[in-house]
Design goal:
Elements: E1 2-7, E2 13-20, E3 28-33, E4 36-41, E5 44-51, E6 57-62, H1 75-81, H2 85-98, E7 107-112, H3 127-134, E8 141-145, E9 155-157, H4 167-178, E10 184-189, E11 194-199, H5 201-209, E12 216-221, H6 225-253, H7 261-277, E13 285-286, H8 290-302
Parallel strand pairs: 3-13, 9-11, 10-12
Antiparallel strand pairs: 1-2, 2-7, 3-4, 4-5, 5-6, 6-8, 7-12, 10-11
Helix pairs in contact: 4-5, 6-7
């Protein structure tokens, strides 16, 4: 797997681009059957989801079968990598590349600390209040409310967050206070319009207990390399055209007309930034057996309990 650093216009680190070579269907996979989604890890159903027919949200059911795709993180390693999302991104990228039950498949991905969800917290809202609100409630079943959280992008844990007095949470709370907490790894799943937590359930619980913003790394599909190359050529052609256009205006109207760099330069920077950071929809595979198979599996997972998908 090829890794390339992605930077902002000012040269600061934005993320890590991952170029995944041809590979079969991933171990952690999204299946679809109409409005019905299933996230399965190898042969284990992890999450059933039923999109509301009016597209207001998603009913879900978790099975407690999910296993983290990142090996346990030692406190010594956390201290060594503290404060460096770039180094953590390389650490997680290595783990994802080696995980047979992870979500990576052929294509280009971005692993970034520029998580969009951070931008929604108001200055007067405490981190504990904000992050508690952003986590989807309910276990084993619950509801992602797209109307309430329009462009708010809830977090959907693949297993329940442990309580504040859990032993792991207590250990991580100390790391929160020390500033050495490893990032929570989340995966953008467009079919759910939500961030799914891949690793860091206890770390997120610790950050909430300490009323602190958790460090985050977001994994999402990105534009393929060939599309980035074509878009870069188009952006460069636009920049050249704009400078030539302004040069023509200067030739007619004199040097009071600007050379166009102050206008075209920032536009070029934005175009190039978007090419490297734009999110692509999550790939999903048709569920063998379709709706009937999904309903059978959902009823089995629910064990006879009533919910919109398994009743």
């Amino acid at each position: 797997m090829r890794r390339d650093d992605v930077t902002r216009a000012d040269g600061t680190w934005l993320g890590l681009a991952l170029e995944v070579p041809g590979s079969p269907r991933p171990g952690l996979c999204v299946f679809t059957a109409g409005r019905r989604l299933l996230i399965a890890q190898e042969s284990r159903p992890v999450l059933f989801a039923l999109v509301d027919e009016h597209l207001d949200g998603v009913d879900f059911w978790r099975t407690d079968a999910y296993r983290s795709v990142v090996p346990p993180l030692r406190a010594a390693a956390a201290r060594g990598l503290a404060g460096s999302p770039e180094r953590w991104a390389h650490r997680y990228a290595g783990a994802l590349a080696e995980a047979p039950d992870g979500p990576l498949h052929e294509g280009r991905w971005l692993l970034t600390d520029d998580a969009r969800v951070r931008r929604g917290r108001g200055a007067s809202e405490s981190p504990a209040s904000y992050w508690s609100e952003m986590i989807a409630d309910g276990h084993p079943d619950g509801y992602l409310d797209w109307h309430l959280h329009n462009c708010g992008w809830e977090f959907l844990p693949l297993r329940p967050l442990p309580p504040a007095d859990d032993g792991r949470v207590k250990a991580y709370r100390k790391q929160v206070r020390e500033g050495t907490l490893p990032p929570v790894l989340v995966w953008w799943v467009s079919g759910l319009d939500s961030f799914v937590i891949l690793d860091g359930h206890a770390r997120l619980a610790a950050a909430i207990a300490e009323s602190a913003d958790p460090p985050l790394l977001e994994l999402r599909r990105a534009l393929p390399r060939e599309d980035v190359a074509a878009g870069t050529d188009d952006a460069a052609a636009f920049y050249t055209y704009e400078l030539a256009r302004f040069a023509g205006l200067r030739a007619v109207h004199g040097p009071t007309v600007p050379d166009g760099a102050a206008t075209a330069g920032p536009q070029l920077a934005r175009l190039l930034h978007d090419l490297h950071t734009t999110s692509r929809p999550t790939w999903a595979w048709p569920l063998p057996g379709g709706k009937a198979r999904w309903e059978l599996l959902a009823r089995k997972a629910a064990g006879g309990r009533e919910w919109p998908g398994g009743g």
